[in-house]
Structure formats: structure tokens, C-alpha cells
Amino acid sequence: MSDNTLPNLDARVLPLPTMDALLPAAPSRHPPRILLLYGSLRERSYSRLLTREAERLLQHFGAETRIFDPHDLPLPDGAPVDHPKVQELRELALWSEGQVWCSPERHGAMSAVMKAQIDWIPLAIGAIRPTQGRTLALMQVCGGSQSFNAVNQMRILGRWMRMLTIPNQSSVAKAYAEFDAAGRMNPSPYYDRVVDVMEELVKFTLLTRDVAPYLTDRYSERREAAAALDARLALDAAVR
After folding, report:
1. Strand, helix or coil at 160?
2. What is this structure's pTM?
3. What is the CA 172 to chain-centroid distance, rounded?
4. CA atoms within 13 A on the CB side of 82
5. CA trace torsion 131, 98, 74, 80 (10° rounding)
6. Cα-Cα end-to-end distance for the chain
7. DSSP calls for 164-223
8. How many C-beta atoms lie closer than 10 Å to residue 43's C-beta?
9. pLDDT tens column, 212-227
């Protein structure tokens, strides 16, 4: 007979997951708050045009949206954290309940503009984590044939930032042919996929925003906090 005991676990900080904890007593009723980031400074930036199209869809689905303009954002570590653009970005990250990242693919990767924005958002600001538990949707625009290099890279970063990245994603091939002179996206299967992604983002945000702290509450961190408390209490007892 196998031994199913787990002697190395700290049972004090390991309650069993329950459905009750995933059902908030009073679900939020305000519109989902979505921050959108794009990764190009060009005058006719297709990542910006795609982001604006996504914003229109999100607003149609009932979300409140903000688009961050990356112009004048310094390179990471190239300015103090109290730089106005850095503070604007961080405040928007804290405001958001979900995010959209949209980058052009350059040299087989996301753009430096996109990466710089992500790098300026820290994993933690004091005791607050500005991205943990927030939902994330990913999109990219391609100058040629369809590729998924940028969205795949951003998916790794989203996981690193402890975000809940939705399964669906969008990659628009030959983006220059997918927008009209006014900057609106033409009807196409690419547009339909963007609709799919934004609809899914809103659904996942509504589903998870009230329980995000529970979903991202980790045994290892609770155990570390309990050990620190034990050490402090032992020190207090010794002093007394």
C-alpha cells in the first residue's frame, strides 16, 4: 500500500480549494477595465490601428478602455521611475482588470517599443502586484505572411508577469492590406478573429476579476509568510 501522507506540507497554510471561494458573494457590476498597449511609433502604425479596432470592440462588449501612448516613454532604466510617462503607465496597469498587448513583428520578435512598456511595469510595487491575476489578450501585425513569433513571446512574458492569458490570440498577415485609408479594418477572417479575441477577453475578465486574489494565492508564499511570523513571535517571546 502506498503512503499518501505529505509530511513536508505546512497544513496551517494549505486549506482545500473550494467552489465557495470561487463564487463571490457580491459580484462586481462595473464595466471591465481594459488597458491596451501597442508597439510602434510610426505615423501609420498598424499595431495602433489594430489596437483601436480592438478598443471599439471592447467598448461594444461593455468594457471601459484606456490606450497608453508609448511616445516619450524612456527606455527601461533610462530615467527615474517618477518620470511622468512611467507613472502614467504604472497607474494604468494598476487601474486595469485586463490588458491587450499588440505588437508588430520585427526581426522575428516583438518590437522594442512593446518590450519597453512591459519592462517598465514591475512585478511588484511594494506589496501591490500591478499585473498579477489580470487577464491578457495578445495580438500581432505582420508585414508579410502570418507568423506567431511576437504573440508567442508575449505569452511567455504574460506568464512571467503572473497574468491570466486567454487561450485565443490574433495575428494579422500583410497588415498593410487589412486597413482602409481611414484606418478602419476591412471585413475579413482576420477581423472576425479579433472579434473572437476581444469577446473572450471580456468573458474571462468577468469570470476571474473578483476571484483573482484567490486564484493567484500561492502555498509557497503563504508558507514563507507563516515562517516569518513564527520567527517574529519567537523573537518577541525571547525578549519578554
Report:
1. helix
2. 0.91
3. 20
4. 0
5. -40
6. 49
7. EEEEEEEEESSGGGSB-TTSPBPSSHHHHHHHHHHHHHHHHHHHHTTTHHHHT--HHHHH
8. 6
9. 989 988 888 888 888 7
